[in-house]
Each structure stands twice: as C-alpha cells, then as structure tokens.
Amino acid sequence: MSFTLAIVGRPNVGKSTLFNRLVGRKLALVDDQPGVTRDLREGEGRIGPVRFTVIDTAGLEEVTDASLPGRMRALTERAVDSADVCLFLIDARVGVTPVDRTLAELLRKRAPRVILAANKAEGRAAEAGLIEAWELGLGEPLALSAEHGIGMDDLLRALEPIAAEFPDAAAIFEVDVGDEVDDNVDEEGGGAALPAGRPIQIAVVGRPNAGKSTLVNAILGEDRLLTGPEAGITRDAIAVTVDWMGTPFRIFDTAGMRKKAKVQAKLEKLSVSDGLRAVKFAEVVVVLLDVQVPFESQDLRIADLAEREGRAVVVAVNKWDLEEEKPQKLNELREAFGRLLPQLRGAPMVMVSALTGKGLDRLHTAIVKAYAVWNTRISTARLNRWLAAQTADHPPPAPAGRRIRLRYMTQVKTRPPTFVLFASIPDAVPEDYKRFLVNGLRRDFDMPGTPIRLYLRSGDNPYANRRKQNVTSLDKHKPRRFEG
C-alpha cells in the first residue's frame, strides 16, 4: 500500500491550496479567511512518479475544550497519529509564530516523520521567515509556493526515501471513481456491465443541522466527520469510502443548503456550490429531512434538484427516535410526500436515527434497490409490446382532428432510464399523455421513484430506413431498360 501524507499547520498557511495542487484538482475550498477547512479531506496525491494518499486538515490552534475549534483540533490530531508522514506548513511571509512552536513540539512527540515546509516563499518578503523556520528544530525547511507550484521538486526529493519503504507508492495511478460508465443500451436492451466492485456514489444532502454528518459517521462506525449542535459545521463536500454491509460505497457529506436569498457570505456560496456539484456527481442522492420540521420549501427544492439532475433519490427522515407518535407521524409523512413530491412518487422513504443507528439497515436496502432501478434496462421488444397495449387501451388524442401515430419506442440510456418514442406528430403529443406513458413505464416495469426521461422524435421506425437502403442498393444492380 502507498503511504499517507497529512498536511498540518495553523489556520490560513495554505494547506488546502497545497492539497489541491497535489491531487491535481480543486477539491478543497480555498478562501482568504482562516479556518475554512474543518473536516479531514482525503485525496490521491502525486508528485512525479510518487503516489500517496494526502489528507487536508483543519488549522491547528491552541484549544483543548469541547468547542468547535477544539473538536476540529481533535480530528487533526487523529490524522497526525494515523499518517505515515506529516508535512508541517508555516507561512514564510509571517515567520515563525508561538502557535507554530507549540505545533512543532506536538509533532515531535506524535508524528512518526515530519517534513517542514515554509509556504508562500515566493519573493524576498519570505526570506526572513524561511531562515526563522530553522528554529523549530525539524530539519531543513523546504521553500514552497503552493499557489505557484514552486518547490515541488524539493518536496519530491524529500518524499522519495519514504516512498521507497512503500512499494505501491510507485504503482501506476489508475481509476478515478468519477470515471463515467457506458450507460448506452442497444435495441435488445443490452449494454456495458458496471465494473465489478465499483463503489456506488452517494450524496447526502439537506438543510443545515439535519444530521448529515452524524448519519455518515453512523454508517462509517466512527467519528470521522465533524459534528455538533451548531448549524452549518460542514463546509466542503467530504467524500469517504466504506464497505457498508458488504456493499462498497463512496459517500459525499455535503454542506447544509439554505434558501438562496439567505446565502450571502462568499464562503457559504462556495459551500453550497460544492454540494450541488456532489449531487451532479452522485448516483444516488439521500435527501435527509428533520422529522421535527419535514418537507419545508428548501427540502422540496433539494429533492426536486436531485430529480431534475436525473439521480436516483432516497428520502431519509432523521431523528426518528425523538418522535413520540410514530404511527400517526408516519402516515402524515407519507401523505405529504405523495402530495408535495409527485415527481418522486414511489421513491423509498426511510425512518432513521443517525444518533442511535436505528434504521440504517433499511436505508442500505433502499439505496441498493434505488441504484438497481436507476440502472434498469428494458429490451426493445418488450417496450413495443407494452406500447401497443397502451395505445390500444388509451390512444393518444387527435388535436384538430389530426391522428397521432406512436410508431416505435426504444431505450437509449440508463442512469436514469431514458427512452425515445417515434411519433407521426411529436409536437402535438400533450404533456399529460407523456406523463401517462411515464407513469405506465414506472408501474409496469417496476421502476418506482426513479427519474424517467422520455423524448419524442418524428419519423417511422428508424430501422425501416436500413431495409429501404438495402432495397435501393439492390435496385442499382438491376439491368437498365433502354428505350429508343
């Protein structure tokens, strides 16, 4: 296995900027204000031929209580204890501060290996800070600029001896879990199979303080993500990989999404944008509601967003352990779900308690089933037998006396199931008849709750043209008749 590198330091020294450079993508939020990073974020880092797991940590501060900064420090210390090497970052322009000295002492006691680096070292203003770094007693400091990519060669040379102890650190860097899967299907309903062992991508979304991070921690079985009574703790969309009840998952814990009018601060806008990207990247979206205030307008917007993006949706109602009148509340929730989210009719709704872990087995089952339905493939023969039966029982209307012929249907994609229907006058097919067909597909082919895309095209059976072309090509070889 490759080694783990934890980037540590006080707030605002450039840890997230360096993390983004090492992973080659802007995964971590970066802003001028200190304390942007709160959770531990992992990524696959690379410098030249050396590969490793890199961890971006929250800024270490001199706090030890149960406050939010204290809980952030505890997470960072856990990363220090588990990492194979710590990259201790200071700000070369500011120089060595008392907090830096305290952190250096902590790393000497707890970290197996420490590499000292002075970031923001471009320009003469950083020379004094680079010299001061020798005072920390952690060896020769590396002069880096995470923003401009300066000093990466020096960092590579510092990591090479460590990489030599881990043979897999030089293995070929493969497979990003974001690689797209071929979801096209042919006219017989076949298609490329999903790669074996590929984790299901899940995004957990909802309003602030709904318990998203607590739910992910309950699935992981450890306090991996920062939680607490404060609303809006999570800022980045943090991805974690876990084998949950025998199924591999990659779960994205997202920042709470408030109404757009209430989102004013730049950092919160970045956090919400990061969460929206996670929704687009996910395959199954778990919309987490608070049982005490379910189905508020923002919850409905979030669920509608997931449906419009074509993601499979599972609704989870959290804090179920606090509800006293459970049967009555359950009936109310089901009624409200069907009334307020008709576009997700049939989607699973699971009652859970992230704090106690109750209901997680049912949530797992609902996610796996929603994912399977989202990948549904239906053969063209079955679709057209179904279409013939539907049009026989409920023919499309005839606007202005013009009869609409529905000639042929085929599935062109999965993830979500996407169908093309060829009609004589596609623009004249009413929206309510399209909904009738979509609801029929969902009912008769057992696709509850999943988004279904139906597109209408003009023309006859597209395969009829092949036969016409074949006949035409034969006609060209017939003996010509001359008249004189």
UniProtKB/TrEMBL annotation:
Keywords: GTP-binding, Nucleotide-binding, Repeat, Ribosome biogenesis. CDD domains: EngA1 (cd01894), EngA2 (cd01895). PANTHER family: GTPASE DER (PTHR43834:SF6). It comes from Amaricoccus macauensis. GO terms for molecular function: GTP binding. Associates with the 50S ribosomal subunit. InterPro entries: G_ENGA, GTP-bd, GTPase_Der, KH_dom-like, KH_dom-like_a/b, P-loop_NTPase, Small_GTP-bd. GTP 2 binds at residues 206-213, 253-257, 318-321. It comes from the Bacteria. Residues 3-167, 200-375 form the EngA-type G domain. Belongs to the TRAFAC class TrmE-Era-EngA-EngB-Septin-like GTPase superfamily. EngA (Der) GTPase family. This is GTPase Der. GTPase that plays an essential role in the late steps of ribosome biogenesis. The gene is der. GTP 1 binds at residues 9-16, 56-60, 119-122. Pfam families: KH_dom-like, MMR_HSR1. GO terms for biological process: ribosome biogenesis.
